[in-house]
Design a protein that fits this description.
heterodimer; A: about 325 residues; mainly alpha; two-stranded antiparallel sheet; about 75% helix; globular; B: about 250 residues; alpha/beta; Rossmann fold; 2 domains; 9 helices
Chain lengths: ~325, ~250
């Protein structure tokens, strides 16, 4: 414990707080805070996944919300058919099936869009990832079978052996466990040989290519891993909200995910969690004062970006030095 | 005997500017072949076409007798070509050792390995350290690359070229921006390498070139106007006229 840095202490404290307080509030009849924490943790997973490519890989994806939507619809559509009939092939409440569907669809979507997007750089990459996610948005908006714009209500949550997602406590437990797993996964990947190549290519692609790395495929692999993780977050979010709509994929949602990563501190393990926590809490607090809560929130963000390098984590580390 | 590297009729132009004009050149195993030429002669453009960063308009590049003209840069690196950059090109956000380790890692199989921490793989780290020690930077191994001086960056470039264990090293002005002492020690260092690696050396520093090169080619406006032993080049009239200046 002696050689623990300030950052690892912060991570530990943050994770303990998330593990202890929400269940405590729930047990004392404050279900609202549990709801807030569940949303925070699930969006935290999405932010962690985005951080892998944005923070460590330098790929500024402006379309990550598409994966959330796809993951959520992978719960909603089978569930919808199981309730209302039709499309027997996928009609099911089976959680394992829905989860597999979410992961496969997110991975395939990431592979196809990534293969095309990664041929571009910089601003073009940002625009093209956004374009792909908007395509997914408009596709689901036009699907009348699934109520288009009005969205889809999930009547029955994913059914798993041993876990009951109707229990807020168990759903939170699953989400929290998934968040920890996602953080460990990203940390492991980042420190691996693969991660070294990914970070090297972010910093100096020409050098990496000259060394013999085909960086395109390394980036694509990272993009697929990230998209798949984000699809998983969508799977959880669908089960949490039990209401899904194309709005989940809108580009402003992708922007919020980017905000979380940058606000917390890109390419740090804890950054995305801090970012999603502050984002959700501020949204909640500020919107209780005024419906124009975006204004003070935006000013805060601008201030942070202008005056603190590396987001909240930068603030934390800066004071240590 | 086939030369290690053979360039035939290489051409490259940017708009109206002809940067490489029908270049024929070869590098024999174990030699240091220097290319000299005034600014804007197209030296770096030539190196970029050899490393694969630029695609030539016409002509072929052969490595060990096989055509690599259409091979992308990463594939050429795998075949044994490495380059150093005239303008330092390092991963500035990583440690010095990480930079060299990436070169060792690149030839240690593929890097789709996700679990084991890269910084704990002993054989990679040790070999990187060894190469860093060769250029005298072992002490700075764990410092952030961006914190080192220009001269040290040039040394890291050399350490990376060594670590990539390439048969052919393309060194693009390795002495650029070095002080006289640093230059002298780099020359001594490259002299020691002689015979072990084949080097295509682009250099402005004439003392260094004549001290190191087995053969010299002179590039002027994208054309090779002469190739020969150092003494031949020194006494070549066309070269004196174009480059060394009249006396």
């Amino acid at each position: 414990m002696k050689n623990m840095t300030k950052t690892s202490w912060a991570t530990l404290i943050c994770m303990v707080v998330l593990a202890v307080f929400p269940p405590y509030f729930l047990l004392h009849g404050q279900a609202f805070y549990m709801d807030l924490a569940t949303r925070l943790v699930i969006l935290g997973i999405a932010a962690v996944s985005l951080n892998l490519i944005l923070g460590y890989g330098g790929m500024v994806s402006f379309g990550h919300a598409a994966f959330i939507g796809l993951g959520a619809y992978a719960v909603g559509i089978p569930s919808h058919h199981a309730t209302w009939g039709g499309f027997d092939l996928i009609a099911s409440y089976n959680g394992l099936f829905q989860l597999a569907l979410a992961i496969v669809i997110a991975a395939v979507f990431a592979l196809i869009t990534g293969a095309i997007s990664l041929r571009t750089k910089g601003v073009y990459f940002i625009m093209i990832t956004m374009a792909f996610s908007q395509m997914a948005f408009f596709l689901f908006q036009s699907l009348d079978v699934y109520n288009g714009d009005d969205g889809l209500t999930i009547d029955v949550r994913s059914e798993f052996p041993f876990i009951n997602l109707d229990s807020p406590m168990q759903l939170y437990g699953l989400s929290y466990g998934s968040l920890v797993a996602a953080m460990l996964l990203v940390k492991t990947i980042v420190n691996s040989r693969f991660g070294m190549v990914l970070q090297g290519a972010k910093d100096n692609n020409e050098r990496m290519v000259t060394l013999g790395y085909n960086t395109y495929f390394y980036r694509l692999t990272a993009y697929v891993i990230s998209g798949t993780m984000c699809g998983y977050a969508g799977f959880l979010l669908g089960n949490f909200t039990t209401f899904i709509s194309p709005d989940m994929m809108h580009w402003t949602r992708s922007g919020e995910l980017m905000f979380m990563v940058i606000l917390g501190g890109a390419s740090t393990a804890l950054g995305p969690i801090l970012g999603s926590s502050v984002f959700i809490l501020m949204e909640e607090i500020l919107s209780s004062f005024t419906i124009f809560w975006h204004l003070p929130f935006g000013l805060m963000l601008i201030g942070l970006v202008l005056f603190v390098r590396g987001g909240l984590m930068g603030l934390l580390k800066g004071k240590g030095k | 005997m086939t030369p290690l590297l053979e360039i035939n009729g290489l051409k490259k132009s940017f708009g109206g500017v002809i940067a490489t004009d029908d270049v024929h050149l070869d590098v024999i195993k174990g030699e240091i072949h220097a290319i000299i030429g005034p600014n804007g002669a197209g030296k770096t453009t030539l190196v970029s076409q050899l490393s694969g960063a630029l695609k030539p308009d016409a002509g072929t590049v052969l490595l060990n007798g096989s055509d690599i003209t259409d091979k992308p840069a990463y594939a050429r690196a795998k075949l044994g070509i490495t380059r150093s950059f005239q303008i330092t090109s390092l991963v500035m956000g990583m440690s010095v050792l990480d930079n060299v380790a990436l070169a060792v890692q690149a030839r240690d199989g593929h890097s789709y390995r996700f679990l084991k921490p890269a910084r704990k793989i002993a054989h990679i780290r040790e070999e990187a350290m060894l190469n860093l020690a060769k250029v005298g930077l072992a002490k700075r191994a764990h410092d952030l690359t961006s914190e080192l001086s220009h001269g040290e960056h040039r040394q890291i470039e050399i350490a990376i070229a060594l670590a990539s264990n390439a048969e052919l090293m393309l060194l693009d002005e390795p002495m650029a921006g070095l002080g006289p002492n640093e230059s002298a020690s780099l020359v001594a260092f490259l002299k020691e390498l002689k015979g072990q690696r084949s080097i295509l050396l682009i250099e402005h520093d004439m003392d260094a070139v004549f001290a190191l090169a087995d053969r010299i080619s002179v590039l002027v406006y994208g054309r090779i106007i002469a190739t020969g032993l150092p003494d031949e080049i020194r006494s070549n009239d066309a070269v004196r006229h174009a480059y060394l200046g009249e006396e």
